[in-house]
Amino acid sequence: MTARVLSIANCKGGTGKTTSAVNLAAELGARGYRVLVVDLDPQGHSGLGLGVTARLGSPNAHTPLLRRQTSLDGAAQVTDEDNVAVVPADRSFDGQLGHGDIRCLSDALAPLRQVHDLVLIDVPPSAAALTVCALMASDGVVVPTTLDPLGLEGVRQFARSYHDTMLRFRAAPLGLAIAPMRIDLRTNVERETLGALRTAFGPGQMVRGVRTDVAVSEAFAQRRPVRRYRPRARAAEDFSGLTDDLVQRFGIDCTAAFAEPPYGRQEGFSRGISWR
Questions:
Q1: Which of 82, 183, 211, 224 has a CA that sits 20 to 30 A from residue 260's CA?
Q2: How far apart are CA 48 and CA 182, in angstroms?
Q3: pLDDT-based confidence at residue 262 (cuts at 50, 70, 90)
Protein backbone atom coordinates (compact mmCIF):
# COMPACT_ATOMS: atom_id res chain seq x y z
CA MET A 1 0.00 0.00 0.00
CA THR A 2 1.33 3.44 -0.91
CA ALA A 3 1.52 6.31 1.55
CA ARG A 4 -1.37 8.58 2.32
CA VAL A 5 -0.63 12.19 1.34
CA LEU A 6 -2.14 14.96 3.45
CA SER A 7 -1.85 18.66 2.70
CA ILE A 8 -1.77 20.97 5.69
CA ALA A 9 -3.32 24.10 4.28
CA ASN A 10 -5.29 27.27 4.91
CA CYS A 11 -5.47 30.43 2.81
CA LYS A 12 -4.89 32.45 5.99
CA GLY A 13 -1.43 32.73 7.49
CA GLY A 14 -0.56 32.28 11.13
CA THR A 15 -2.93 29.39 11.81
CA GLY A 16 -0.35 26.78 12.83
CA LYS A 17 0.24 24.89 9.58
CA THR A 18 3.99 24.53 9.99
CA THR A 19 3.71 23.81 13.72
CA SER A 20 1.21 21.08 12.89
CA ALA A 21 3.42 19.58 10.17
CA VAL A 22 6.46 19.37 12.43
CA ASN A 23 4.68 18.03 15.51
CA LEU A 24 2.39 15.58 13.71
CA ALA A 25 5.38 14.17 11.83
CA ALA A 26 7.32 13.68 15.07
CA GLU A 27 4.37 12.07 16.85
CA LEU A 28 3.70 9.65 13.99
CA GLY A 29 7.39 8.87 13.57
CA ALA A 30 7.66 8.01 17.27
CA ARG A 31 4.82 5.51 16.76
CA GLY A 32 6.72 3.74 13.98
CA TYR A 33 5.17 5.38 10.92
CA ARG A 34 7.59 6.44 8.20
CA VAL A 35 6.79 10.08 7.59
CA LEU A 36 7.97 12.42 4.84
CA VAL A 37 7.43 16.18 5.28
CA VAL A 38 7.37 18.17 2.04
CA ASP A 39 8.08 21.83 2.83
CA LEU A 40 6.25 23.65 0.05
CA ASP A 41 6.38 27.01 1.85
CA PRO A 42 9.37 29.05 0.56
CA GLN A 43 9.96 30.30 4.11
CA GLY A 44 11.28 26.81 4.79
CA HIS A 45 10.03 26.73 8.36
CA SER A 46 9.04 23.06 8.45
CA GLY A 47 12.56 22.11 7.52
CA LEU A 48 13.99 24.50 10.07
CA GLY A 49 11.67 23.12 12.75
CA LEU A 50 13.18 19.69 12.11
CA GLY A 51 16.74 20.96 11.72
CA VAL A 52 16.95 20.61 7.92
CA THR A 53 17.70 23.05 5.10
CA ALA A 54 18.05 22.45 1.37
CA ARG A 55 21.49 21.42 0.15
CA LEU A 56 22.97 23.57 -2.59
CA GLY A 57 22.47 21.94 -5.97
CA SER A 58 20.22 19.14 -4.70
CA PRO A 59 16.54 18.72 -5.62
CA ASN A 60 14.09 20.30 -3.22
CA ALA A 61 10.32 20.59 -2.75
CA HIS A 62 10.03 23.30 -5.41
CA THR A 63 12.12 21.60 -8.10
CA PRO A 64 9.11 19.81 -9.72
CA LEU A 65 7.25 23.14 -9.84
CA LEU A 66 10.02 24.71 -11.86
CA ARG A 67 10.97 21.85 -14.19
CA ARG A 68 8.45 19.41 -15.63
CA GLN A 69 8.88 15.68 -14.99
CA THR A 70 11.51 16.20 -12.30
CA SER A 71 12.25 13.44 -9.82
CA LEU A 72 12.66 14.05 -6.10
CA ASP A 73 15.26 11.30 -5.84
CA GLY A 74 17.91 12.45 -3.39
CA ALA A 75 15.78 15.34 -2.12
CA ALA A 76 14.64 13.79 1.18
CA GLN A 77 16.89 14.32 4.18
CA VAL A 78 16.68 12.35 7.40
CA THR A 79 16.15 14.22 10.67
CA ASP A 80 16.92 13.60 14.32
CA GLU A 81 13.32 12.43 14.81
CA ASP A 82 12.64 8.70 14.54
CA ASN A 83 11.31 7.76 11.10
CA VAL A 84 10.93 11.37 9.88
CA ALA A 85 12.49 12.77 6.70
CA VAL A 86 12.06 16.16 5.04
CA VAL A 87 12.10 17.41 1.47
CA PRO A 88 13.17 20.98 2.26
CA ALA A 89 12.03 24.16 0.56
CA ASP A 90 13.84 26.33 -1.96
CA ARG A 91 13.91 29.54 0.06
CA SER A 92 14.51 31.57 -3.11
CA PHE A 93 11.36 30.25 -4.83
CA ASP A 94 9.30 33.23 -6.04
CA GLY A 95 5.94 31.46 -6.26
CA GLN A 96 5.88 31.24 -10.06
CA LEU A 97 5.48 27.83 -11.68
CA GLY A 98 7.81 27.04 -14.55
CA HIS A 99 5.11 25.13 -16.46
CA GLY A 100 1.38 24.40 -16.42
CA ASP A 101 1.38 20.81 -15.18
CA ILE A 102 -0.73 20.88 -11.99
CA ARG A 103 0.03 17.20 -11.31
CA CYS A 104 3.79 17.72 -11.27
CA LEU A 105 4.08 17.31 -7.51
CA SER A 106 1.90 14.22 -7.54
CA ASP A 107 4.11 12.62 -10.19
CA ALA A 108 7.31 13.58 -8.37
CA LEU A 109 6.05 12.10 -5.10
CA ALA A 110 4.90 8.80 -6.62
CA PRO A 111 8.16 6.88 -5.99
CA LEU A 112 8.47 8.25 -2.45
CA ARG A 113 4.94 7.08 -1.62
CA GLN A 114 6.16 3.51 -1.99
CA VAL A 115 8.59 3.78 0.94
CA HIS A 116 6.60 5.88 3.41
CA ASP A 117 3.36 5.53 5.34
CA LEU A 118 2.47 9.21 5.25
CA VAL A 119 3.49 12.34 3.34
CA LEU A 120 2.66 15.70 4.93
CA ILE A 121 2.75 18.74 2.63
CA ASP A 122 3.19 22.11 4.35
CA VAL A 123 1.32 24.44 1.97
CA PRO A 124 1.97 28.21 2.06
CA PRO A 125 -0.98 30.61 2.45
CA SER A 126 -2.13 32.83 -0.42
CA ALA A 127 -0.32 30.81 -3.09
CA ALA A 128 -3.07 29.53 -5.36
CA ALA A 129 -0.89 27.68 -7.87
CA LEU A 130 1.07 25.85 -5.16
CA THR A 131 -2.13 24.96 -3.34
CA VAL A 132 -3.64 23.43 -6.47
CA CYS A 133 -0.50 21.34 -7.07
CA ALA A 134 -0.57 20.18 -3.45
CA LEU A 135 -4.27 19.27 -3.60
CA MET A 136 -3.75 17.28 -6.80
CA ALA A 137 -1.14 15.22 -4.95
CA SER A 138 -3.20 14.70 -1.78
CA ASP A 139 -5.63 12.20 -0.33
CA GLY A 140 -6.89 14.63 2.30
CA VAL A 141 -6.44 18.06 3.81
CA VAL A 142 -5.83 19.15 7.39
CA VAL A 143 -6.98 22.74 7.95
CA PRO A 144 -5.48 24.26 11.11
CA THR A 145 -7.31 27.37 12.28
CA THR A 146 -7.38 29.86 15.10
CA LEU A 147 -10.68 30.30 16.92
CA ASP A 148 -11.51 33.88 16.03
CA PRO A 149 -13.65 35.57 13.36
CA LEU A 150 -10.74 35.91 10.91
CA GLY A 151 -9.84 32.27 11.42
CA LEU A 152 -13.44 31.24 10.74
CA GLU A 153 -13.51 33.29 7.55
CA GLY A 154 -10.18 31.77 6.49
CA VAL A 155 -11.58 28.25 6.82
CA ARG A 156 -14.70 29.22 4.88
CA GLN A 157 -12.61 30.80 2.13
CA PHE A 158 -10.33 27.79 1.91
CA ALA A 159 -13.28 25.38 1.81
CA ARG A 160 -14.82 27.31 -1.10
CA SER A 161 -11.49 27.33 -2.96
CA TYR A 162 -10.98 23.64 -2.27
CA HIS A 163 -14.39 22.61 -3.61
CA ASP A 164 -13.96 24.88 -6.67
CA THR A 165 -10.59 23.24 -7.37
CA MET A 166 -12.03 19.74 -7.14
CA LEU A 167 -14.82 20.64 -9.56
CA ARG A 168 -12.60 22.54 -11.97
CA PHE A 169 -10.11 19.73 -12.39
CA ARG A 170 -12.65 16.93 -11.97
CA ALA A 171 -10.70 15.47 -9.09
CA ALA A 172 -12.10 13.09 -6.51
CA PRO A 173 -13.24 15.00 -3.41
CA LEU A 174 -10.74 14.87 -0.59
CA GLY A 175 -11.50 14.59 3.08
CA LEU A 176 -11.25 17.73 5.18
CA ALA A 177 -10.21 17.74 8.82
CA ILE A 178 -10.48 21.08 10.62
CA ALA A 179 -8.11 21.36 13.59
CA PRO A 180 -8.39 24.31 15.99
CA MET A 181 -5.04 25.66 17.18
CA ARG A 182 -3.99 27.72 20.22
CA ILE A 183 -7.28 26.95 21.94
CA ASP A 184 -8.35 28.92 25.01
CA LEU A 185 -12.05 28.30 25.55
CA ARG A 186 -12.19 30.66 28.51
CA THR A 187 -13.04 33.43 26.03
CA ASN A 188 -16.51 33.93 24.57
CA VAL A 189 -15.06 34.59 21.12
CA GLU A 190 -13.35 31.20 20.95
CA ARG A 191 -16.39 29.31 22.22
CA GLU A 192 -18.63 31.09 19.69
CA THR A 193 -16.18 30.50 16.84
CA LEU A 194 -15.90 26.81 17.67
CA GLY A 195 -19.69 26.55 17.66
CA ALA A 196 -19.84 28.34 14.30
CA LEU A 197 -17.29 25.93 12.80
CA ARG A 198 -19.27 22.93 13.98
CA THR A 199 -22.47 24.40 12.58
CA ALA A 200 -20.91 25.34 9.23
CA PHE A 201 -18.96 22.15 8.58
CA GLY A 202 -20.53 19.54 10.84
CA PRO A 203 -18.89 17.76 13.76
CA GLY A 204 -17.70 15.00 11.42
CA GLN A 205 -15.14 17.35 9.84
CA MET A 206 -13.79 18.59 13.16
CA VAL A 207 -10.85 16.90 14.84
CA ARG A 208 -9.21 17.49 18.19
CA GLY A 209 -7.11 20.62 18.40
CA VAL A 210 -4.19 21.98 20.39
CA ARG A 211 -4.43 24.24 23.41
CA THR A 212 -2.37 27.38 23.89
CA ASP A 213 1.05 26.39 25.20
CA VAL A 214 4.25 28.44 25.23
CA ALA A 215 6.19 25.17 24.95
CA VAL A 216 5.29 25.02 21.24
CA SER A 217 7.14 28.22 20.33
CA GLU A 218 9.98 27.41 22.72
CA ALA A 219 10.42 24.02 21.08
CA PHE A 220 10.40 25.53 17.60
CA ALA A 221 13.10 27.99 18.63
CA GLN A 222 15.22 24.95 19.54
CA ARG A 223 14.31 23.30 16.22
CA ARG A 224 12.62 20.45 18.01
CA PRO A 225 9.07 19.08 18.12
CA VAL A 226 7.35 19.76 21.42
CA ARG A 227 7.14 16.04 22.27
CA ARG A 228 10.94 15.92 22.46
CA TYR A 229 11.52 19.37 23.92
CA ARG A 230 8.96 19.04 26.70
CA PRO A 231 7.20 15.67 26.52
CA ARG A 232 4.88 16.40 29.46
CA ALA A 233 3.59 19.68 27.95
CA ARG A 234 -0.13 19.84 27.32
CA ALA A 235 0.56 20.61 23.65
CA ALA A 236 2.44 17.30 23.37
CA GLU A 237 -0.63 15.56 24.77
CA ASP A 238 -2.88 17.46 22.37
CA PHE A 239 -0.80 16.64 19.28
CA SER A 240 -0.99 12.99 20.33
CA GLY A 241 -4.80 13.21 20.42
CA LEU A 242 -4.89 15.02 17.09
CA THR A 243 -2.70 12.29 15.61
CA ASP A 244 -5.14 9.63 16.83
CA ASP A 245 -7.99 11.42 15.07
CA LEU A 246 -6.11 11.82 11.78
CA VAL A 247 -4.94 8.18 11.71
CA GLN A 248 -8.54 7.07 12.10
CA ARG A 249 -10.08 9.66 9.77
CA PHE A 250 -7.70 9.13 6.86
CA GLY A 251 -6.94 5.44 7.36
CA ILE A 252 -3.19 5.87 7.76
CA ASP A 253 -1.58 2.43 7.84
CA CYS A 254 1.86 1.52 9.13
CA THR A 255 2.46 -1.13 6.46
CA ALA A 256 5.87 0.18 5.39
CA ALA A 257 7.29 -0.05 8.88
CA PHE A 258 8.74 -3.51 8.30
CA ALA A 259 10.25 -2.76 4.91
CA GLU A 260 13.85 -1.82 4.17
CA PRO A 261 14.83 1.72 5.24
CA PRO A 262 14.55 3.99 2.17
CA TYR A 263 17.66 6.05 2.97
CA GLY A 264 19.95 3.52 4.64
CA ARG A 265 22.23 2.85 1.67
CA GLN A 266 22.19 6.26 -0.02
CA GLU A 267 25.27 8.43 0.22
CA GLY A 268 24.88 11.83 1.79
CA PHE A 269 22.33 10.83 4.41
CA SER A 270 23.17 10.62 8.08
CA ARG A 271 23.16 7.21 9.76
CA GLY A 272 21.53 6.08 12.94
CA ILE A 273 17.89 6.95 12.27
CA SER A 274 15.49 4.38 13.68
CA TRP A 275 13.28 2.93 10.92
CA ARG A 276 11.03 0.60 12.86
A1: 224
A2: 21
A3: low
* Confidence bin at 1 (pLDDT 50/70/90): low
DSSP-derived secondary structure for 63-111:
HHHHSTT---TTT-EE-SSTTEEEE---TT--S--SSS-TTHHHHHHHH
Q: Report the domain count for the chain.
A: 1
Q: How many residues does this entry show for the chain? A: 276
pLDDT in tens, 64-80: 999 887 888 889 999 99
Which SS3 state, helix, strand or coil, does residue 203 take? helix
Query: Are β-strands 84-87 and 175-181 bridged in parallel, bridged antiparallel, or unpaired?
Result: unpaired
Distance of CA 212 to the CA centre of its chain: 20
- In this prediction the pTM is 0.90
Q: Which residues form the domain of 61?
A: 4-253
270, part of any domain: no
Q: What is the DSSP letter of 204?
A: G
* Element spanning 178, H or E: strand 175-181
Classify residue 263: in a domain, yes or no: no
The answer to whether 251 and 61 have CB atoms below 8 angstroms apart is no
Domain containing residue 164: CATH number: 3.40.50.300
The alpha carbon of 221 is separated from its chain's Cα centroid by a whole number of angstroms, namely 19
Q: Alpha-carbon torsion 17, 20, 22, 24, what sign?
A: negative
Q: d(Cα 105, Cα 135) in Å, to the nearest integer?
A: 9
**Cβ-based neighbours of 267, under 8 Å, separated by 6 or more:** none
